[in-house]
Amino acid sequence: MSCPPEWSLGAYADGELTDAERSDAEGHLVGCERCRRLVVELQAEARLVSDVLCERAPAEAPPRQVASPARGLATGFPVTLGAIASVVAVFGFLFESRLPSGVEWARPGRWLGVHEMILDVLFTMRDEVPGMVELALAIAVTASVAALITFVSSALLRRVGDSRAIGGVLLLGLGVALGDASPARAAADVRFDQSVHIAPDEVIERGLLNTGESLIIEGKVVGDVVAFSERVTIRGVVDGDVWMMGRELEVSGEVKGNLHAFGEQTRISGKVGGSFYSGSDRVTLEPEAEIARDAFVMSGRFVHDGKVGRDLTGLFSRGEIQGSVGRHAESWSEQLEVRAGTVVGGDLTAHVEDAEDVRIDESVQVAGSRDVLADDPALRHIRSSYREPAFYLWRLVWMAAAFGVGLLLLRLLPWAFEGHIASGAEFFRALGLGFAFAVLVPIGLVVLALTVVGVPLALIGASLYAMVWYLAVILVATLVGRSLTSPESGSLRDQGLALLLGLVLVTIAFHLPWIGGLVRFVGMLLGAGLVLDRVLAAWNARRSAA
């Protein structure tokens, strides 16, 4: 919305507008810092003219004290970083000490029951939550359709006023009732049966979405498969990607796209035309298994006897490798055994706590280097990153993109950058909002995704969730830049310079050795809290203006 002319703001400052005009002007002033500053200057000018005409001595204004919009950072940031660093140091000491017997459960390699616990919770939610969510959505949709029909019918009756309008309303209602515009139905074949079996001679042309006790695919599915079932077995062909979650997952057929699997047991003895991503308690690649591209595995125990076309990356407690890897193989584990018959076309890198936890057979064929890293892999990663020119190139690309997005937002939504953290209380309030957003929103999205009708809403929510984290960094950078440059005008040039300076400083702080991760974590939470605070302020302002 464009700003009103200066004579209109002058009339507002002089109190010469009508109630309706004054309400519209105040609604605009809530979101426009430039016009608010102009109104204040006009009011000060009017008081000065009045003092001169009445021969009054103007009162001396007290010296203006401009508080830094980010003064609260100096109070809250060190305290928060210190608290987090203390917690990390305590847990780091426990892990380095091999953990006392009372807290041995905290070691990730000992979390053998975590997949079962998570799946128990998710399957319980799948059985209990969908009814409540679908009921709420049905009520909301019914109310929306009723309101729409009421609005259209009243508009038609006012414009036409005869039986043709009523006939039009009836036809509209019939079209809404009989029309099948459901994206989920158009995009995939939805099955709610407890046991779904795709026979060998059956072909599904538009993908498959299933939630039940078991899913067996022996035929062919043209499209993607999304399965949330306790047992999933693919013996046929899936001409697309597969996303599956369950207790027992088995692929002995062919998946022409990427395979994503999360469960207790995942066993692959077929072909995967894309990449393989798995987070399971136990993952096994049989000798017949073929992964055309990359394999990324997070597991308690990992056994690889098959073939990976490109890179193999694993995070697991215990690993056994006896198959082939086309390029590089890298693992982070407590124990790793590379047996005879293994072929690695690139480098073989193993990250462990103790070099004695790795056993590599002498007959293993490795085209590149063999590295067993028992030191801190994080430090090695930092050193290698700082030596690579690509590291600095991508930082510059990111800053350029963030600067462009920030300038666009400064032009279109200037009210989004008016937040401030002038005290420690405001810092911790924003930090709390960001933490609540980071924890609660994903839980809500998972609950929505458990229902078919909630999947589109969950996808939209996930996109907005990612967008908030991107904007969080831009808002924190703008806050830091404004506190250092103190721009006296709301021009795009001054605000842009503050944004650029803030982005440079924030990028450096986020990639500092040792503490960069903590600074990034706190900064992201703080930025998310600022985004929510500005959205709530804009919402309340619009309600007040209305």
Helicity, as a percent range:
40-55%
This entry's quaternary arrangement is single chain
Outline: elongated
Structural class: alpha/beta
Q: Mean pLDDT score, rounded?
A: 76
Major sheet summary line = 13 strands, parallel
Total strand count, please? 23
Ends apart, CA distance between termini: 16 Å
Strand content: 15-25%
**Count of alpha and pi helical runs:** 13
Rounded radius of gyration (Å): 31 Å
Poorly predicted runs = 61-67, 98-114, 155-186
How does this model look, in words?
With 546 residues, the protein is an alpha/beta fold. It folds into four domains: 6-53, no CATH class; 84-179, no CATH class; 186-375, no CATH class; 384-545, no CATH class. The protein contains 13 helices and 23 strands. The strands form two sheets. Strands 1, 2, 4, 6, 8, 10, 12, 14, 16, 18, 20, 21 and 23 form a 13-stranded parallel beta sheet that branches. It has a ten-stranded parallel beta sheet with strand order 3-5-7-9-11-13-15-17-19-22, with no helix packed on it. The longest helix has 46 residues, at 114-159. The model is unreliable at 61-67, 98-114 and 155-186 (pLDDT under 50).
